[in-house]
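In this supplementary section we document a worked example of the pipeline. Step one takes a protein sequence of length 130 as its only input; no multiple sequence alignment statistics are reported here. Step two produces a three-dimensional model, which step three serialises into structure tokens for compact storage. The input and output of this example are shown verbatim.
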Amino acid sequence: MDILERSRFERIAAEDRWIRALFTEQEIEPTSVYSPERTREFLAGRFSAKEAIAKVLGVGFIGKMKWRDIEVLRSSTSGKPYVLLHRFAHARAEELEVGTVEVSISHQPTMVVTVAVGERGCACSQRGEL
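The serialised model returned by step three reads:
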């Protein structure tokens, strides 16, 4: 689980270089049609999700784990977020026998709350959108 004050994220997101360091092009792309406020809200949710997913994997973002090793995308049909793990995050999930990570993101006016759950036994983490 992760709880993020949106004001904390907005300080981080004030500079484009941080956005490019934290998110993949596929994560940023949907925001091209959003207002600046909606863009910050959307990306704050993805940021919080990455924090929650790192907790599932039992690691932080110091050392081998990079922010872009976790990708939180959105299904084009349902809008549901789904997770793709790359590089270190993918290797760590395999080590833990976590095949799928499910995530739920809730936005409130001042906060974002995210819950992530790792599921064992399913080799589905690279399956793409649902």
